[in-house]
Amino acid sequence: MSWTDERVELLKKMWAEGQSASQIAKELGGVTRNAVIGKVHRLGLSNRTGAGAPAAAPAKEAKAPKEVKPKAAPKPAEPEPEAKPREPAVPAAAETRSAPPATRKQIIPAGQPLPPQPSANEISPEALAKVSEVEKKAKKLTLMELTERTCKWPVGDPATEDFWFCGLPVQQGKPYCDAHVGVAFQPMSSRRDRRR
DNA sequence: CCCTGATTCGC
DNA sequence: GCGAATCAGG
């Protein structure tokens, strides 16, 4: 596979969207994430400086255990005369980093406080708070978009438009992201069996 | 162990 | 230019 125009464009697009190199590699196919990263660098867009992203470049030096190669390459800045407006067509799949959708309507209606799963009688309020916070950042994936590494925590009512899966990166091994693991796997404290 | 991007360097 | 190997970190 070679870097055709289209492939490069897709690469640029996805990189701009904040996709990881490995994800891009998967999408493109025929390349590894290393290839993607290498290309990204060659294209000179290693900085994912999108909108308002703080480009704090910490000076990290002396990290070459083998050879010190002071790469004195005076590269001031590349304005990149890109006359290509990004189409914000789909607000639903908005990225998380730069455009927080301001006032998000409360996802969980008061009448139906209990989200998905089961009887999480008493989960630490902090965990719950974490969840509701995370849900704002959720990728909001559909069933088909889930992968082995996306949080499969369902949010909302399946019978409604307001239903999606978290989709954030899972905590290694687990089926859920960090926050949802917190409420999914309880310390099994109050798991008292009521005698029936 | 899973992942991330960054860098080097032989090709 | 390309990207595997490696590095450095989460």
From TrEMBL:
Region (Disordered) location: 44-122
InterPro entries recorded: GcrA (IPR011681)
Superkingdom of origin: Bacteria
Positions with biased composition (Basic and acidic residues): 60-70, 77-87
Name of the protein described by the UniProt record: GcrA cell cycle regulator
